[in-house]
UniProtKB/TrEMBL annotation:
Coiled coil regions in record: none
Sequence similarity: Belongs to the 'GDSL' lipolytic enzyme family.
Regions of compositional bias (Basic and acidic residues) in chain numbering: 217-228
Pfam family, one: Lipase_GDSL
GO molecular function: hydrolase activity, acting on ester bonds
Start and end residues of each stretch annotated as Disordered: 209-228
Protein name, entry field: Uncharacterized protein
């Protein structure tokens, strides 16, 4: 399915014209969980390993060519908790760590070949307690582990401009709730009724919708995740 739509999701022809700014700053490419399913399992979504690698290569190269400022992170195929899957579903859902590891290792090798940073999602989750709620899908703890792995890649990457929010320039730093609160206090000095005060606060709120403290004004990179 991804091979049928990825060029529509990321139209490369926009890269070199006046619309090139629509290209994402960061794409996280993640396939392998469903692809590594046992081919004998009913209605399996299995993709043979060699084909999986070539599919990932095509998509990764396309994304790398979108623009000079589009960066890519790849996630390997994940580990699973086989015991929990069996307990939750009554069968193994065609998933095993033996096969999943092969897809993960192939994904890591491909990323190294292409010069793309890869999060080894298999090793990050393997035999970790509390990371799956059904043996395959992440709990809050599992999501936290994934977030920290991706965050580490972003912080260590030598990208220009940086996508590390700690190092991004702050825009509209002089605009914040404190400034508007101070303005409101000055304007209410001579107001004597609750009704007038309520009206002024409502008017001020209408004018400052979308303006919050300066920390939340830092621009966040566009992020698109292709997930299996």
């Amino acid at each position: 399915m991804a091979l049928e739509i990825y060029k529509k999701v990321f139209p490369k022809e926009h890269c070199w014209d006046k619309h090139k700014e629509i290209q994402p700053s960061l794409v996280i490419l993640y396939f392998g969980g469903n692809d590594s399913q046992d081919s004998d399992f009913p209605n399996s979504s299995n993709v043979p390993l060699d084909e999986y690698v070539e599919n990932m290569r095509k998509i990764a190269l396309h994304i790398k060519g979108l623009s000079e400022k589009t960066h890519l992170i790849m996630l390997s195929a994940p580990a699973v908790n086989e015991e929990l899957i069996l307990k939750f579903y009554g069968d193994n859902r065609g998933r095993s760590n033996e096969v999943g590891r092969k897809y993960a290792e192939a994904g890591v090798k491909l990323g190294q070949e292409l010069g793309v940073p890869v999060v080894n999602f298999f090793e990050a989750l393997y035999e970790k307690p509390g990371v799956f709620w059904d043996g395959m899908h992440l709990t809050a703890e599992g999501s936290k582990i994934l977030f920290e792995k991706i965050q580490k890649v972003i912080k260590e990457a030598d990208w220009e401009p940086t996508l590390d929010w700690d190092k991004m320039p702050t825009e509209y730093a002089d605009i914040g709730t404190d400034m508007h609160l101070e303005k409101l206090m000055k304007e209410t000095t001579h107001i004597g009724t609750d009704m007038q005060l309520e009206k002024l606060m409502k008017d001020t709120e209408d004018k400052t919708i979308g303006i919050t403290d300066s920390d939340s004004q830092e621009p966040k990179p566009h992020e698109i995740i292709l997930d299996a």
